[in-house]
Design goal:
single chain, 282 residues, mainly beta, 6-stranded antiparallel beta barrel, 6-stranded antiparallel barrel, 16 strands
């Protein structure tokens, strides 16, 4: 999971040295826009972080005048991975994001965060950043609209696209199943999305939105895969059934559902952690 970072996988593949995230991205430039199963999902609303992928998103109650939000993984948080049980809310941030054009070949500009609205690696693996610009301002300047977050859980068999801003690549497959519990090192995630084999996501795709290919709504956020066939270790998540049985699926990749996050977004794009919100609370 933390090794979803591109620098780590390139170093492992090369067998020598450790590349910085910047060097890894430079290495990716000649292959900027390969894609699989692209359909009508493109790179509109997709961003690249220094070490991960992400997307410009809005909830069901978001208004055009609201400060825009960027979605990525909890383990992509610039201050480091939250510990099990840790929830980060309303923390100042000045992180920047590169906004891609629809083709994924060009950069439209830089977006900047003012704070971490919400971040955790407990039950899910998500970070939500609040930007210093509204949806309306971003659309006027760049001609880009945010991706809507679905408020419903996706079903097995749903065709999806995992859109990586870091690698500028789109993976096409389907949701294979919903996993009761997914365990990796000290973290446990609930109701994770298991992909069919065609979505062979790599390091650097962390935080990519999982987009329903039919509705073009975000139903999840890509976060991990079992690299080595190990059992419940770092970069080797295992599935835990309701009966406690453990299953290891070498080479299989996963994402975390986002409908609970969408339901917790209230007026002004605040994450409202009241009794009706099922997200973990501080």
């Amino acid at each position: 999971m933390p090794r979803r970072l591109a620098a780590a996988v390139l170093a492992a593949a090369a067998g020598a040295g450790t590349l910085t995230a910047g060097a890894a991205q430079a290495a990716a430039v000649p292959q900027r826009a390969p894609h699989q199963g692209r359909a009508d999902v493109d790179f509109a609303g997709i961003v690249a972080l220094s070490n991960c992928s992400g997307s410009l998103v809005r909830g069901p109650r978001s208004r055009d005048a609201d400060a825009a939000l960027v979605l990525t993984n909890g383990h992509c948080l610039e201050s480091g991975m939250p510990a099990a049980g840790e929830v980060v809310v309303d923390r100042d941030s000045s992180r920047t994001f590169t906004l891609l054009d629809r083709t994924g070949r060009g950069d439209l500009g830089t977006l900047r965060a003012t704070r971490v609205e919400y971040a955790t690696m407990t039950d899910t693996d998500v970070t939500l950043y609040r930007l210093d610009a509204s949806y309306a301002a971003i659309r006027r300047r760049y001609g880009v609209s945010a991706l809507p977050l679905s408020t419903a859980a996706p079903r097995a068999g749903t065709e999806i696209r995992v859109v990586s801003g870091y690698w500028r690549k789109i993976y096409g497959c389907a949701i294979d199943a919903t996993v009761y519990r997914l365990r990796e090192a000290g973290w446990t995630w609930k109701d994770s999305l298991r992909y069919t084999p065609r979505c062979e996501t790599v390091h650097g795709t962390s935080g990519s939105p999982v987009v329903d290919a039919r509705t073009r709504r975000v139903v999840g956020v890509n976060n991990t895969g079992n690299d080595d066939g190990e059992r419940c270790t770092l970069d080797n998540p295992c599935e835990v059934g309701r009966d406690g049985g453990i299953t290891v699926r070498h080479g299989v990749h996963y994402g975390q559902q986002t409908y609970l996050l969408a339901r917790c977004l209230g007026k002004g794009n605040d994450v409202v952690l009241d009794g009706n919100c099922a997200l973990p609370k501080p």
